[in-house]
Write a structure and sequence with these properties.
The chain is of the alpha/beta class and 228 residues long. It is built from nine helices and eight strands. It has one domain: Alpha-Beta Barrel (TIM Barrel), CATH 3.20.20.
Length: 228
């Protein structure tokens, strides 16, 4: 099946002192989405961005010709519902959360969609994916963590490839238009392998923001994705 690939740079690795400029720069370099990692120092041992930062960056997340670039919010928080609604109001386009952080997963998915955003589930390296079967009709995005959540710059966990393969089978069997995203350790030299397992959307943080030429990295990733 032919898939449209998306590259979603994670601003967790950007220059925090110049986030607006960093968002514009990476969009000019060819980013499809802006990935927004929200950590609460509770569900994960780190603290990052709140809804006000998302709202402030919304006006920067546009192309040179004025097209809105989706902000892809990954909530690593517990509880989920109040912050999900706050990020929807702040301009998020997609909001994903970890099912174990929600008391009622089906209800949280409904809440996100009712707020005007696409809804996603996130599966950690050791998390079971069986829950997807029961809520797949309310899911627009599945995010596979190929590192343990909480910190940027970690190495890719190879067992994630098997999880991606299983999820690709589940999504294809459902016949639904669901994005399969991967976050953690994505680089030019492994992005093709991850795509071959079934992913279509790729979060990259330090692999892009750790280099001086963002376009060169994104172009190299696209070249690998286009290779037979």
């Amino acid at each position: 099946m032919s898939r449209t690939f998306r590259i979603a740079p994670s601003i967790l690795s950007a220059d925090f002192a110049a986030l607006g400029a960093e968002v514009r720069r990476v969009i000019d370099a060819g980013a499809d989405w802006i990935h927004f990692d929200v950590m609460d120092n509770h569900y994960v041992p780190n603290l990052t961005f709140g809804p006000m930062v998302c709202e402030a960056l919304r006006k920067h997340a546009v192309t040179a010709d004025g097209r809105r670039v989706p902000i892809d919010v990954h909530l690593m928080v517990q509880p989920v519902d109040a912050l999900a609604q706050a990020f929807a109001q702040a301009g998020a386009d997609l909001i994903s959360f970890h099912p174990e952080a929600s008391a009622h997963v089906d209800r949280t998915l409904q809440l996100i969609r009712a707020s005007g955003c696409q809804a996603g589930l996130v599966f950690n390296p050791a998390s079971s994916i069986e829950m997807l079967e029961w809520v797949i009709d309310k899911v627009d995005l599945v995010l596979v963590m190929s590192v343990n959540p909480g910190f940027g710059g970690q190495s890719f966990i190879d067992s994630a490839l098997r999880k991606i393969e299983r999820l690709r089978g589940t999504i294809d069997a459902s016949g639904r238009d669901i994005r399969l995203e991967v976050d953690g350790g994505i680089k030019v030299d492994n992005i093709r392998r991850v795509a071959d397992a079934g992913a279509d959307t790729f979060v990259a943080g330090s692999a892009i923001f750790g280099q001086s030429d963002y376009r060169a990295v994104i172009d190299a990733m696209r070249a690998r994705l286009a290779a037979a």
